[in-house]
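Box S1 | Example of a co-folding query
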Amino acid sequence: MSDKVYVFDTTLRDGEQVPGCQLSTPEKIEIAKELEILGVDIIEAGFPISSPMDFNSVIEISKAVSEPTICALTRAVEKDIDFAADALKFAKHKRIHTGIGASDYHIKYKFRSNREGILERAIKATKYAKKYVEDVEFYCEDAGRADNEYLARMVEAVIAAGATVVNIPDTTGYCLPEEYGAKIKYLKDNVKDIDKAIISCHCHNDLGLATANTISGVLNGARQVEVTINGIGERAGNTSLEEVAMILQTHKDVDLHTNIQSNRIYALSLLVSKMMRMPVQPNKAIVGRNAFAHSSGIHQDGVIKHRESYEIMDPADVGVPQNSIILTARSGKAALKYHLERLNYDLSNERVEQVYEEFLKLADEKKDISDDDLIVLVDGKLPEGGFSFENVQLSYESNGQVTSTITMKVGSEEMTATATGEGSVEASYNAVDKIIGEKVNIDEFLVQSIGDRSDAGKVHVRVKYQEQMYIGFGVHQDVVIASIKAYIDAINKIASIKNKSLAGTV
Ligand code: KIV
Ligand code: ZN
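Box S1 (continued) | Returned holo structure for 3-methyl-2-oxobutanoic acid
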């Protein structure tokens, strides 16, 4: 039997730290339930002392899932550990993840301390966490740039203090794969009782090496990988779950396995992208739109003759839909339902009827309907209490000024406002601001073309509200309408995170 590699998912902690990617507690619960079905072994559910919302999310996730271990992050600070233990009180399997900086950069400049002082704090925190739970993971932050000899002392000391997992993060994404693998081997060879703990890889992608480093760590004896869906995370992101899982599944020669049900990967990638408003780059390995798209004639011919000529994985193995059921204007409700279920939507029959009506209108305009289109069709109808876009009228003056009249709805209440601006998007955003009664600053605005028609636009807008970032997206054949929908989506996101309606005065 091959060795098992434990999958520790930190989408809801390291992934959620990305500005603009915050999730509400119900959204986190939905993702956690899907992670459980996917087969992850550990879910890092949050950093409880960081905010009441993180604390509450750890509590609610602990209640909602039972199979994976629920993990809560702390600093090497007793109060943090008290909070984590309290937040984990409902978890069936629980883990506290504590730690401190191990590189001289962290020791000297972040903690203004010395190696011995930090070692003492590491031991103390581990023993303190151990009073609450049996399963304690210790992270040696910035281990990637730490001196190996000192790192080995720290790892040995925390194992002696009771750590069951030792995490070796390449916090800054600095290491080369060979260097990171050698670090893990050094610990295997030089730390007394290393076999009493599992070594964990936690790599960041600043140089595009997170997956390579993680695999190198595993090949040198690590047996836990810390990953996120779509590789989201601080700066350039974390190691992506789907890449590591599929490398181990594809390379039978490595003789290692995970518990990941790979055919659930694609649906979860879409869910996380949709909830975090974080697009997946088209050429992203495994889950990108183009990951299995063959465009050159030679490749197409090769795949038709024998799939393996140009494909090392079967798209079905990661849940990427085969082309057998294509949605067009002639598709029936069964085909629509099949695709909605594949995308993890569990809709009432009444809601399927509504979506089907809208689907038929869109299918009349577009040759075939993509997953992106379906997501917008379903989520275009906004949650209770959220704003929905109804209508826009634009008029263009000869001096370049544009006047926009926007109608939006909250529940059954309709609100209309008119405003001017330098262009149609600016005028429309000013009109929306009048409706919500607040001015929200736009930080980033991106237009992408999707599908096979150049006029199908997807717009991402990142806004800043009370010093926090929120992202919204909208899709429509008309880019101005897509832009308005994206802005309204971001506003709804603010309302759902802040638990506060921005509904204002016209
Ligand atoms: O990157 C890192 O070092 C971390 C630790 C807190 C585990 O995220
Ligand atoms: Zn990290």
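The chain has 16 helices and 16 strands. The longest strand covers residues 387-396.
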